[in-house]
Amino acid sequence: MAIDAATVRKVARLARIAEPEEKLEPLAKELSGILNWIEQLNEVDTDGVEPMTTSVETTLPMRDDVVTEGGDPAKVLANAPKAAKNFFVVPKVVE
Which Gene Ontology BP terms does the record give? Predict the structure, then answer.
């Protein structure tokens, strides 16, 4: 799959990445190479291969689930940029 400079420009704009015009063509070639490699991977027969999340099978250590009184609010909020009434104060993100 070939990617041209116009596609790179569009993707960069959608991703809010500022790329100078002189870098668009080299990026297009690089992305085309990556997609060609992915197309090669798609040709590999993976029938019968179990999905895996890691290359090494491990078991995570378990710990007792113990209820505590929680931390000291003063210590927890000591590094907070802003706190009020024992809560973190954060900017509003939902309008």
Answer: glutaminyl-tRNAGln biosynthesis via transamidation; regulation of translational fidelity; translation
